[in-house]
TrEMBL record:
Residues 14-30 have a biased composition (Polar residues). Keywords: Nucleus, Repeat, WD repeat. GO terms for biological process: RNA metabolic process. It comes from Thermothielavioides terrestris (strain ATCC 38088 / NRRL 8126). This is Uncharacterized protein. SMART domains: WD40. Pfam families: WD40 (PF00400). The lineage of its organism: Eukaryota, Fungi, Dikarya, Ascomycota, Pezizomycotina.
Length: 379
């Protein structure tokens, strides 16, 4: 395989105009829809987006979250300088910079309409805000939490979402109305996830070392299943089973549940019975980001340092350096619960936030600079 040079864009500062037209593209390296297993080992950092704030001697902001829209054509970050940055995936260019200086911003997510996003506030109050990106105007505020929001999860096929908070509540919302439709009182319910059918949602509580599963139509009856992570942790350090959780996600085939941890590995669980399929052991130091709901021990919040590939087979994770990839089929076939990465994709920068494009073979990672990854061509 021939090497692919990194393309670098100097993205605008927060004071720039809302819309930009950077002509550079990814050309022949445009995202593909080839089977993930055919290209997973060939991913390379292809495009670096560099904020120009550093030119003024200012420290670069931290990227707090990464998300893709449903068609996979837009990538969005929320950043610690209270901005939202939107990128065109196919053209490989920065598209818009939106400001949220009054309320702050984190956990920004596209709704099922690419021109609409929701995000959590970081100052003034703990409301969730619904923003139209085409004119940077607010459509609605979702008020109800009395503490910092730790996670937002959008229903896979409907206009519903879940919010978790340090106020020990989980709120269920219909995006079309400002009032929450349901409320759960739980101990440290810091992470949430929908199963691919949208019929079940999971809530993760690090303090109680549990993951609770609810029927969306009958959540008032309480959880129908409870996974004890301390019991299922296998070879993991007990601390990893009770603190520093970074991500909760179902695989797209519905078979596995990924629980990310700041510790020396992540938990791959059976989504039906909660048994540990494998402890995804990191070969070196993890990222320095805070776990959900944490305020000390890291340098910034994050939407998660690990995720599934769209085929549900592979798990990707950030690290102090490099991008780690585990093959879950190896976990199913092997007797040892500790699973080493199948591939280590080289990158000198810290990969503290990780997201896989749901429609194309394209990965985005970030710490203080956003990087697009594409499979290297066989030419």
């Amino acid at each position: 395989m021939s090497p692919t040079p990194m393309d670098i864009d100097d993205a605008p500062s927060a004071s720039a105009t809302p819309s930009l037209n950077i002509s550079r593209t990814l050309g022949a390296n445009a995202p593909s829809t080839t089977s993930v297993s055919e290209v997973i080992s060939a991913f390379r950092p292809t495009k670096l987006f560099r904020r120009d704030d550093a030119k003024d001697g200012k420290p670069l902001p931290y990227v707090l979250s990464i998300d893709f829209d449903d068609p996979g054509e837009l990538c969005m970050t929320s950043e610690s300088d209270e901005t939202i940055q939107i990128y065109n995936v196919k053209d490989g260019r920065h598209d818009k910079s939106l400001l949220s200086k009054k309320y702050g911003v984190k956990l920004a997510k596209f709704t099922h309409t690419s021109s609409g996003i929701i995000y959590a506030s970081t100052k003034q109050n703990d409301a969730i805000r619904y923003l139209a990106t085409h004119d940077n105007s607010f459509i609605r505020y979702f008020e109800g939490h009395e503490g910092a929001v730790t996670d937002l999860s959008l229903h896979p096929g409907a206009d519903n979402f879940i919010s978790c908070s340090v106020d020990n509540t989980v709120l269920l919302w219909d995006i079309r109305t400002k009032n929450f439709s349901g409320k759960l009182f739980l101990n440290t319910p810091y992470l949430s996830a929908w199963d691919p059918s949208g019929n079940v949602f999971a809530i993760a509580s690090p303090a109680s070392s549990t993951i609770l599963l609810y029927d969306h139509r009958n959540y008032e009856r309480g959880p129908f299943s409870e996974f004890d992570i301390m019991k299922a942790r296998g070879p993991a350090d007990p601390e990893a089973a009770s603190r520093g959780w970074t991500k909760l996600e179902f695989s797209n085939d519905g078979k596995h549940l990924l629980l990310g941890s700041r510790g020396d590995g992540h938990f791959l669980l059976d989504a039906f019975d909660g048994n540990l399929k494998a402890y995804l052991k990191k070969p070196g130091p993890g990222t320095r980001r805070l776990g959900a709901g944490e305020t000390q021990g890291g340098n910034a919040e994050s939407s998660g340092d690990c995720c599934f590939a769209p085929d549900g087979r592979y798990v990707l994770s950030g690290a102090k350096t490099d991008l780690l990839v585990w093959d879950t089929l190896a976990a199913a076939q092997g007797g040892d619960k500790v699973l080493a990465p199948t591939h280590v994709l080289e990158e000198k920068r810290e990969t503290a936030v990780v997201a896989y494009n749901p429609r194309y073979n394209m990965i985005a990672t970030a710490d203080q600079e956003l990087v697009f990854w594409l499979p290297e061509s066989n030419s």
